[in-house]
């Protein structure tokens, strides 16, 4: 019948539209993941500050530390066209960071224990991150021992959780054969 033919044509058109929409959404999803990856690879998470330390004090301490590192002194003096002795925290902030170090502040005046650094360049992020390697990724700022972690995109963290749970289960096993076994997760660390 004619109504059945019209219905079949409408369903076919709808099916084609859904197929093209799904294709487009898959492309957008890949694009969003690539963007997340690019943003995350230029970030470091510094954690361990006490809640009473202001964002400004943290930023100043981190920028002061950055000013002691040879890589940033050389590059900063080149970018500012001045000697190393004339570099200031603001020079480091404007030349190496996308924005000021970010710390969440709560209504009661306390702050998060975490501060996020967003570098303009991945190599600068790496130099800063690796400067902590000499001290087991810990450094003392403002009387707090803080640790540094490279950021990773959300989709990567979702993949890490099941693997970390598996490694934890293997590590806590009482089986004598597992006592000597070693589990290594093989994926890129983006660091």
Could you outline the blueprint of secondary structure elements for this entry?
Layout: H1 2-40, E1 43-47, H2 55-66, H3 70-80, H4 89-96, E2 114-118, H5 122-130, E3 138-141, E4 144-150, H6 154-171, H7 176-179
Helix pairs in contact: 2-4, 3-4
Instruction: Briefly note the structural class of the backbone.
Output: alpha+beta
The tally of beta strands, per DSSP, is: 4
Terminal residue distance: 65 Å
Shape: extended
How much is the average pLDDT? 80
Helix content: 40-55%
Q: How many DSSP H or I helices? A: 7
Tell me the β content: 5-15%
Task: Identify the notable features of this structure and list them briefly.
191 residues; alpha+beta; 4-stranded antiparallel beta sheet; 7 helices; 53% helix
Would you write up a description of this structure?
The chain is of the alpha+beta class and 191 residues long. It is built from 7 helices and 4 strands. A 4-stranded antiparallel beta sheet has the order 2-1-4-3. A hairpin with a 2-residue loop joins strand 3 and strand 4. The chain is extended and about 85 Å long. The mean pLDDT is 80.
Summarize the structure.
The chain is an alpha+beta fold.
């Amino acid at each position: 019948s004619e109504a059945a033919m019209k219905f079949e044509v409408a369903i076919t058109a709808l099916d084609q539209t859904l197929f093209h929409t799904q294709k487009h959404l898959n492309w957008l999803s890949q694009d969003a993941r690539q963007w997340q990856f690019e943003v995350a690879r230029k970030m470091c998470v510094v954690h361990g500050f006490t809640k009473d330390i202001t964002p400004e004090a943290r930023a100043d301490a981190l920028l002061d530390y950055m000013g002691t590192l040879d890589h940033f002194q050389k590059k900063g003096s080149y970018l500012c066209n001045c000697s190393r002795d004339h570099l200031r925290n603001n020079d480091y902030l404007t030349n190496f960071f996308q924005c000021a170090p970010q710390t969440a502040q709560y209504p009661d005046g306390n702050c998060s224990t975490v501060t996020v650094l967003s570098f303009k360049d991945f190599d600068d992020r790496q130099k800063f991150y690796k400067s902590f390697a000499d001290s087991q990724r810990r450094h003392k700022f403002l009387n707090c021992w803080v640790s540094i972690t490279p950021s990773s995109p959300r989709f990567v963290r979702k993949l890490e959780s099941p693997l970390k749970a598996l490694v934890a289960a293997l590590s806590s096993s009482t089986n004598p054969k597992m006592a000597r076994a070693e589990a290594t997760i093989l994926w890129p660390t983006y660091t």
